[in-house]
Write a structure and sequence with these properties.
Blueprint lengths: L3 E2 L11 E3 L11 E8 L13 E7 L5 E3 L1 E3 L1 H8 L12 H17 L5 H4 L2 E5 L5 H8 L3 E6 L2 H9 L3 E4 L5 E2 L4 E7 L8 H11 E12 L4 H8 L13 E2 L2 H10 L2 E8 L6 E8 L1
Parallel strand pairs: 7-8, 7-11, 8-9, 11-12
Antiparallel strand pairs: 1-10, 2-6, 3-4, 4-5, 5-13, 12-15, 14-15
Helix pairs in contact: 2-4
The structure holds zinc ion.
């Protein structure tokens, strides 16, 4: 698998942020402001990013999303402050224990053991590298992608495969068996396009692993009711999916969800496995 990043779609303007003209999932213009939240307490906040986040609700498909998504200048400000949790290092046994259930769940959906058939696992947004290291341990040919140079270098220093880049500019020479996006989709301005990219990189019957917060979860509802739901101040998220909106999106983009579970890694998070059809 040879990732190739063309520069053809690289952004050219230096704008801070752009407003969604319509719902990013269904393109309905029947959208209304749901709420506004202060975001200056976020660890990646910068005065240039503004004091509040507006959250919108689509009357057409029920999707909840931010009024704006960051342009090149906004992303530059956010990525300039990658924290230690987003690069490899620290307690690696803790990371192995965290990711082993995910790798095992994927393994149960496969026809053969990964080490018998050289199955490639591509982890998009690999961050601290825990999923790449654990998939490698279970016999996958695991590879991480991340926009952060530091995250890629730390994985490579431990002898793992990693490349700098993002899904928008990814081309693969050979389709991969597993593509994971752990806590990634909610960061992408247009998730439908991201899923199309993921599908194009996956082999027929390949598996997509996704995790993201679920705004229908009991803990989400309780945090919101008590006025301390941190996701409403999350500068890096543009989308708040429910299980229903995520599953529908997957089906519309050519995936069959085959597994759902509660994610133990973050508050209110869900994990979905879907097969490319
Ligand atoms: Zn919509």
């Amino acid at each position: 698998m040879n990732p190739d990043f063309s520069s053809a779609s690289a952004p050219t303007s230096a704008s801070l942020r752009q407003a969604y003209a319509a719902c990013p999932l269904c393109e309905s213009t029947d959208i209304a402001r749901l709420r506004s939240d202060a975001c200056h307490t976020h660890p990646l906040w910068h005065p240039e990013l503004g004091e509040t986040l507006d959250w919108m609700h689509c009357q057409g498909c029920e999707h909840v999303f931010s009024r704006h998504y960051w342009g090149p200048r906004g992303f530059e400000l956010l990525f300039s402050r990658a924290n230690e949790g987003q690069v490899a290092g620290g307690d690696l046994d803790r990371l192995r224990h965290t990711w082993a259930p995910v790798v095992e769940r994927v393994g149960r959906q496969l026809a053969s053991a990964p080490w018998l058939s050289d199955l490639v696992w591509l982890d998009v947004g690999c961050g601290n590298g825990g999923l790449v290291m654990t998939a490698d341990e279970y016999g996958f040919i695991a590879m991480g992608l991340d926009v952060r140079e530091q995250a890629v270098q730390r994985l490579q220093a431990l002898g793992y495969r990693a490349a700098q880049g993002d899904l928008d500019r990814l081309e693969v020479s050979d389709p991969v068996a597993v593509l994971s996006m752990a806590d990634v989709l909610e960061h992408m301005p247009y998730p439908r396009q991201a899923l199309r990219r993921a599908r194009a990189a996956l082999a027929q019957d390949g598996l997509l692993y996704l995790s993201c917060p679920n705004l229908d979860a009991a803990s989400w509802r309780a945090m919101t009711a008590q006025g301390h739901n941190p996701y409403w101040a999350e500068l890096e998220h543009f989308h708040n999916f429910s299980r229903a909106t995520l599953m529908r999106l997957l089906v519309e983009e050519g995936f069959m969800p085959v597994d759902y579970t509660v994610s133990p890694r973050y508050k209110s998070c869900m994990e979905v496995l879907a097969r490319r059809v």
